């Protein structure tokens, strides 16, 4: 849904990183606005930081500039503790850290915008899903820390914290 809304805007490129290759979804996005170049790269947010950095080098080499990163990967499965933390928090930290190397003004970067997807549970834990709630609280805290460095890095960071979604 986020990608559908984005391609309706005046963008040049939309790059989607996901574990699942869905050509029909990519075709749908291209059809919404043929002026936007939609590109897909296979990516698992739980890959190590070095792999994420390599992929971003490829993307930056192709596009030259990237303005916005939306970290939207997330799962809600407290039976898979390590995976929940790896997807919801560690992967988000790695992706953010990797793109900061490209954007940080202290390193000659242009700055950028990071939108991390949190959850209302980051502020008000749901006792039935404590691991999920804690992982989203970590997202909020991490993003607040990155946001406080915006005047130094040139990178704006914020969270979107939805309630229950389908």
Automatic annotation (TrEMBL):
Signal peptide: none annotated. Gene3D superfamilies: NAD(P)-binding Rossmann-like Domain (3.40.50.720). Coiled coil: none annotated. Its EC number is 1.1.1.1. Keywords: NAD, Oxidoreductase. GO terms for cellular component: cytosol. InterPro entries: ADH_Drosophila-type, NAD(P)-bd_dom_sf, Sc_DH/Rdtase_CS, SDR_fam. Pfam families: adh_short. The keyword Nucleotidyltransferase does not apply. It comes from the Eukaryota. One of its GO terms (molecular function) is alcohol dehydrogenase (NAD+) activity. GO terms for biological process: alcohol metabolic process. It catalyses: a primary alcohol + NAD(+) = an aldehyde + NADH + H(+); a secondary alcohol + NAD(+) = a ketone + NADH + H(+). PROSITE patterns: ADH_SHORT (PS00061). Homodimer. Belongs to the short-chain dehydrogenases/reductases (SDR) family. This is Alcohol dehydrogenase. It comes from Drosophila insularis.
